[in-house]
Amino acid sequence: MYKGTNASSGIGIGTAVIVEEAELVITREMVADAEAEVERFKGALQRTMDETEALAADLAQRVGEKEAEIMNGHLMLLMDPMLTGEVEGVIRSEGVCGEHAIGQVFDMYAGVFASMDDELMQQRATDMRDLKTRLQRVLLGVASTDIASLPAGSILVARDLTPSMTAGINPANVAGIVTELGGKTSHSAILARALEIPAVVAVEGFLSQVSGGDQVVLDGDAGVVYVNPDETVAAEYQAKREAFLKEKKELEQYIGKPTVTKDGVSVELVANIGKPEDVERVLAYDGEGVGLFRTEFLFMDRDSMPTEQEQFEAYKTVAEKLEGKPVIIRTLDIGGDKEIPYMGLKKDENPFLGYRAIRLCLDRKDDIYRPQLRALLRASAYGNIKIMIPMVTCLDELRAAKALIGDIKKELDAENIPYNREIQVGIMVETAAASLMADLFAKEADFFSIGTNDLTQYTLSVDRGNEKISYLYSTFHPAVLRSIRHIIACGREAGIMVGMCGEAASDPMMIPLLLAFGLNEFSMSASALLRSRKMITNYSIQELQAVADKALSFSTTGEVEAYMKEFLG
């Protein structure tokens, strides 16, 4: 058995197909005609852009717009005149071949992105290396491995999979993916989940332990891989695979059913989205609304600020498609950890505790916050939009945001522009300060949404992206559980809705506790909705009270997790 990181759930059983891209040998060749070489580079650039556009269109049709955005992001990089201009500049100034110039420029940017603390920026490093290799292959006339035509029942084994390679996979033929490198948040892992292909990544030294044609079994939930397993193991995982497929089919019966517990308590089951196109998946999985629309994606992968009208159209589209279902839209949550040149943000030494979110927005009302709030208010005339303020630590911030919203309402009245006069303004509770003051915030906020990812990080003083201390990061830490229970209790006492939009909202071990605490709304990725609905409808909140009391009686994270695992059987 080989251990790795669980990247995409499910059981994969099939025959190993080793995918090894021939290593490109790039030398610093001098050219006699630099301008002719620039034209040669431009030809390769155009061909790579055409291929990328085709991949994005194919993904959008097969999987969804959200997944296609990964390849559209590659297209934006290829269209960046600063990036391509630097390659042309190296060719002209140094008189070198295009292959070498591409390597020099793209490796430099990849190194910059890789050195950043932010996971999104580190993923850009992978994207840069992928594009570098694709451009060089076109120039050299070296074809890439044709992953799309792998035989049925293939377990794809590689040192690493680039986003472009993963995007070309035919899920009908690939039963699973195993790689030596990669992580849960890599674009390849995201695409594997979207394509619903079981995947285990970061299996160290795996290529030296497997040969093409070997029988491979992988568990995408446990993160384990077997090569040529004995009959007992093979039979065990065949049974697991059949059970997984059966459960997936059974979940379809929960489409159209209300999210109500056995003892008659209704809760809202909604989804997190990043772009208007994501609503299609929310509706496909019967989501009851949107609990978190991350608006920062509207500001990224572009060279200028989105206009008020652009934002209005995006928010309006979501509101109309959901036909009156709630849409909670988070105002811009961005800061010095994101690479957005046109915003002129300086890199913070500690971006997660720095100039970001509501702090940035209130400081830059005219060019950032006012246009966004105007767009949100205008779009509220077309559906059930609610405004959520992130990263709040004091009442002054909430009051300032509400005051600005009040001013904009007067402007819209004067311009005879319709909007929802009763629009709700709530806060994302994700800081220790907001948690401790939840009783005071509940008197002035229209709703709470608990962001467990940051709440856990800030409560435990643990950088969730730091592998050396990741063992300390757990939402099941007694301090975090007490904080969550306190926030919900304060909201319930004040009579406001309390939701959760962090990863914990769909965690099978956390759902029973959240129901017992009295959480009103669960927001998660669309693909987790039906499984969560099934869990919720099988519980009685009254019976779960004893479970929650027992869980909160423990003094360590390990004890809580062990108890909840035992409870779930």
Q: Mind explaining what this structure looks like?
A:
- With 569 residues, the protein is an alpha/beta fold.
- The protein has helices spanning 34-62, 65-78, 81-94, 98-114, 119-140, 163-167, 187-194, 231-251, 279-284, 308-321, 357-363, 365-379, 395-414, 432-436, 438-441, 452-460, 478-494, 511-517, 529-537, 541-551, 557-568; strands spanning 2-3, 5-8, 11-18, 154-158, 174-179, 199-201, 215-219, 224-227, 268-273, 290-294, 326-330, 384-389, 425-429, 447-450, 497-500, 521-524.
- The strands form 2 sheets. Strands 1-8-7-3-4-5-6-2 form an 8-stranded mixed β-sheet. The chain has an 8-stranded parallel barrel with strand order 9-10-11-12-13-14-15-16, surrounded by 5 helices.
- β10, α10 and β11 (326-330) form a beta-alpha-beta unit.
- α1 packs across α5.
- The protein is globular and about 75 Å long.
- It starts with a strand and ends with a helix.
Key terms:
569 residues, alpha/beta, 8-stranded mixed beta sheet, 8-stranded parallel β-barrel, 21 helices, globular
Count of alpha/pi helices: 21
Q: Which consecutive residue ranges, at least 5 long each, have pLDDT under 50? A: none
What form results from the Cα inertia axes? globular
Overall average pLDDT = 90
Helix and strand composition category: alpha/beta
The N- and C-terminal alpha carbons lie at a distance of 24 Å
Radius of gyration, in Å, reads 25 Å
- Could you give the order of strands across the largest sheet? 1-8-7-3-4-5-6-2
Helical residue percent? 40-55%
Strand % is 5-15%
Number of distinct beta strands:
16
Largest sheet: 8 strands, mixed
